[in-house]
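Working notes for the structural subgroup meeting. M.R. asked for a predicted model of this chain before we commit to crystallization trials. I am recording the input and output together here so anyone reviewing the notebook later can reproduce the run.

Input as submitted:
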Amino acid sequence: MKTINSKQYFSLIILFIFGSFILTHGNRLAKQDTWIAILYGFLLAIPYILIVAYICSKNKGLNAYEIFKRYFGKYISKIFSLFFILTTLTLAIFICGVFIEYVHLTSLQQTPQYIIGFLLIIISIYAALQNMQVIGRISSFLFIIFISTFLVVCIFSFTNVNIENMMPIHHLEGSEMFKATYDSFLNPFSEVFIFLVFGKYLKKEQSQYKVLIISLLLATIFLSLNALRNVLILGSPAYFDLYFPSYISNTILISGAIIERIELLFSFFFIFCLFIKLTLCLKATTIGITYHFKKLNMKYVTFFLGFITLLITCTYFKNIDHYFGITYSPFREYINFGLMFIIFLTFIFTLINRKKYVNSYDLTLNK
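Returned structure, recorded in token form:
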């Protein structure tokens, strides 16, 4: 098994968390305090992140599906794995939907949506069939370029800000702010569960705690800064009436001779984040299916899942209003709650059996 170093894993986590969040997010309850809700969401997510890191560190060399089998046996583990697989596949469908709607509205209005989705799916399928080392190298290389550009753009953006747009600060009452914080926790921080599948690829001498906490802290800072920038430029009402506020903020950026067509560069950044997130979702789903059905060919399963994702996305979502209506519905909240219950149960069993399986790899799992 080819492993990845902490720098590559670090880049994957941040780009995955960015995903669709950096492109679409505006907390409808927090409004101009969206950037504060993101910070609070990270604080609320810290115990959850530590639980994921603990499970990975105590089960080195195992992915989520193997961990379920280790602690829950053959039959219960299959139920948990099925829920995990359906969750990652659902997430892939939402990501594919964001990509299609974004490209369709901003660039290719006359192009059929299934053609737009087909382009992303084909590239994502190809990437999902590569080993994690390849995905990690590409991510770590482009990550530095994207983040540097993002920081430069944020600096230039402040020539267009209006401080009054963020007033009043922290205007929500306690219960309302907690609800806004919980929404930020659910999306994107609760999605860190997927690294239960990929934690096994981090080199064993690297600390799961250190990489997860630092990467998610930096992702939080970038997301909060981006949300604050959007609020200051667009204002609270416009921010929440737009489907892709980050893109609009970039299009009105006065760049002069220093940065030309900055919206095109950032469009590539947004699309690459979506690509990484979709690739990891497809790969995690494929790993789960081929683990429980060992006779299936990984290549065929990945192709099947990719086109099923595209088919559901293009047939189920009627328009962009329908898509965002589903995105913010209680449906995703119920899915996340069920998955958090499974992860918490796994954490409890890991604690109970920590001496039995300390630094060991049960080879019988692969038999």
